Amino acid sequence: MGGVVLETLSNRKLSILAVSLLLLLFVFFLIGGLVAPAPSSVMNMLTTKCYDKHVYAHEKKWYIPRGLHACDQIDDLSNPVVNDKRIEASMVVFSLWLPYPRENKQLNMSRWFQNMLTVIQMDIEHHDNNPLSKYTNATMRMEVRLGYRNQQDNESDWKELISTHEDRPLRCDTDRVKDDYYRCELLSFFELGSVHYDYYLINIRLPVYQSKDVNLGLGTIKDIHIITIFQNGGFTKVWFSLKTTMFPVIIAVLVWFWRRVKLLSRQPNLLERTLLTLGIVLSIMNCPLEWFTLWFNLPWMSILSDIRQGAFYATLLSFWMIFAGEHIMVVPKNNLRSYWKHLTSVVFGCVCMFVFEMCEKGMQLANPFYTIWVSETGTQLALAFIILAGIAACTYFLFLSYMIYRVFKNISAKKTALPQMSNLRKNFYLGLIFRFKFLMVLTLLCAALTVIFFIISQVSEGQWKWGDDGISLEYSSAFLTGSVYGMWNVYVIGLLSLYAPSHKQYTQTNDTSDGSQEEEVQLTQIPTETSAMTSFISKEAQE
Amino acid sequence: MGHRTNDLRTSVTQLYNNPSLLPLTKKQKKLVTRNPGSIMAIAKGAKMAIDECKYQFKNRRWNCPTYVDGHGGSIFGKILNTGCRETAFIYAATSAAVSHSIARACSEGSIHTCSCDFEHNKVPVGKDWEWSGCSDNARYGHKFSRRFVDVLEKGRDFRYMMNLHNNEAGRVHVSSGMKQECKCHGMSGSCTIKTCWMRLPPFRNIGHILKDRFDGASKVLPGNTGRAVKRKRRRFNFSPVNPNHKRPGRRDLVYFEHSPTFCEKENMIGFEGTAGRECNSTSLGVNGCDLMCCGRGYKSETFPVKERCHCTFHWCCQVKCQVCTRLKVRNTCL
């Protein structure tokens, strides 16, 4: 390995670079904390209970909760009038128009929202004579229709997105007789990868089929709340801007790095190739493809983002492994094949996560209501994949720890041997040790920062602010822009610029102050050095 | 209002159409016309408060009687003009119910003017729905209830302060009874992104809490502390009659008059007394015949009732039952 910029850079330049990178990172955090709103918003809405005596006759009818074409409504299902009018369970349609009206105008969903997911919260009243059947595992069958409409469309002109029936198990309990309502777990409802239309309309029916044992033993359902979570438009705007700015920056650094490598007389070594790959994968992740969602309906974009992000993390993990391996200071292996055992764990873990992702989100492309967690086998399958991925992650960290342990062992062995070495070899080893320790500290710092910010954002999210005052920092946004996005970008920029081969050996210009010292540190041709090192090591081994 | 009339809503429309049940002041009318749809929610809230009051007090001598003919200007009768515990409960329950019901109507989308202030302290420059979404509905309900319920209190006397305090206490219980729920939706469903929201409690829960506060309400000294120090509107400095007791907080109910025994007919508050009330001959509590009938004794009668039995229930509406006849014992106070 030749000398890298990190070793040859004067302290002044190094600190300038470090400070500017830190400032960049700080800017990322500030943008997240001060400019961006919270990453997502939530609408907690109550469905309107429509009724239609001829519900079967008009299978394709939409039930709209408000406006000119509003349906006939029931306020309270326990009202005796409901029985007098002979309304049955199958005639009731729970309907919801997303979003709600506010400040005297009907709000509309925006394409900036990117994605939205909904969960259902059931209000089931506790009656001793009509209990929720606990032992037969009450399953609710919903006949759902999801429609959409744009602002300029006719008010009754709803178009169908999907019409399906879905089973959801009700997991409820009641802890005391005094409680009027069961405490039910939230039910996942649907998830859309793109919010392309202005309004969405949900119609849910819970028909009872006595003979088929469908929707029996559900208790007394009073209301259905639908909670919609979507990414905030402001957050998307900030996120897109970050991506759009960082994309060319990374490309520029990458080009600079690769030109440096190409200038060398030798073939690029494994570490350089890995760094290049890392940079390329990061650019792919940064590529602001999401802009297209503002014009086209691209529900698969969120899967693509997840995959790109996953690919980046996989490359980063592989890079760490290879970096440690190449610094063991026995013979650098310099080819990818010798790392197959270690990299298999990364690839295996990623494949597991990919399969899980495709089972959940991939299926949702076809049916937004699909979720792997509702069926027994699905849950087991999903858990199996997650556990496998966890095992892969553990194996990876064991490998990595072992490698780092070996590096440190070698370092201490080298340190004792250092005084007897020739100047050239001594500097070579000092360089190696410095490079390794530097990356080690940097990586640990980044990891620690991520963990700390993750905890802060979780804690701050958990505390509900009821009329607090002063400047509020959006910790979750700061976590996402700063730790998840900004930090790893800055990290890769740092790596690319500091671990690029130094050109000083070619220019041979004498720096004024510490130039002489720097030049001595230069280690030139790999082959001679490697042979020198191998001979040294074999000598060591003999002793 | 342009609202559809529908006989499934009769109970509500009845309330709305009958001015004696829902008499509005000028300010209230203005508020209601400016917020179309709110009148329905208020009517529902009023019904909710009445039902809850009747439910919580069904076993007590004072069983929250209501008067359709506008007894003393209010559906709850003249008891509202006194300053006893029961008054405190009614005030708290009604303002809580309005707050609850408006918040609910906002989440249903039936009031079009609910506010969208996400960061109510920040100047919302360019911060709109698209940028950062809307705030929770309960905040609007709270504000609306303040503007709707509190304007009824006029004058600057002690009762005015007591009523405002109890109104606020009711609303605070709605806000603080909200439960937080969260959902993780980060990459692959991980918790890197977590979103939380507040869930409005069923009004029955608030009723239970208010009943507890009713039992532990503090009797305060009228005017003794001079003109009670008013830091903010609706925050008064009450001092308890018993100096060993803690000062009542925001969530406590306060009163300054002793309640009557509610045994005999009370013309002052228009209460009919417990004569003719049903009681439980085996209970030792307030609903037991000894206490309920104030020692006047009770009469027992046995009569057959037709009841629905062997019912099969669905989640809604349709109930298939048989009719059984059963003998029932009824005890009524003399």
UniProtKB/TrEMBL annotation, chain A:
Membrane topology: Multi-pass membrane protein
Domain Wntless GOLD: 48-231
InterPro entries: WLS-like_TM, WLS_GOLD, Wntless
Transmembrane regions listed in the UniProt entry: 238-258, 270-291, 311-331, 383-408, 428-456, 476-500
Residue span, Wntless-like transmembrane domain: 232-503
Keywords: Developmental protein, Golgi apparatus, Membrane, Transmembrane, Transmembrane helix, Wnt signaling pathway
Annotated Gene Ontology cellular component terms: Golgi membrane
Any single Pfam family the record assigns to this protein: WLS-like_TM
Listed GO MF terms: Wnt-protein binding
Compartmental location: Golgi apparatus membrane
GO BP of this protein: intracellular protein transport; Wnt protein secretion; Wnt signaling pathway
UniProt similarity note: Belongs to the wntless family.
Protein name: Protein wntless
UniProtKB/TrEMBL annotation, chain B:
Statement: the UniProt record of this protein carries the keyword Disulfide bond: yes
Matching Pfam families: wnt
Protein name: Protein Wnt
PANTHER family (alphabetical): PROTO-ONCOGENE WNT-1, WNT RELATED
InterPro entries in the cross-refs: Wnt (IPR005817), Wnt_C (IPR043158), Wnt_CS (IPR018161)
Species per Swiss-Prot/TrEMBL record: Lottia gigantea
Cellular component GO terms, alphabetical: extracellular space
GO biological processes: canonical Wnt signaling pathway; cell fate commitment; neuron differentiation
Subcellular compartments: Secreted, Extracellular space, Extracellular matrix
Keywords: Developmental protein, Disulfide bond, Extracellular matrix, Lipoprotein, Secreted, Wnt signaling pathway
Family, per entry: Belongs to the Wnt family.
A Gene Ontology molecular function term of the record: frizzled binding
Top-rank taxon, per record: Eukaryota
Keyword Disulfide bond belongs to the record: yes
Function comment: Ligand for members of the frizzled family of seven transmembrane receptors.
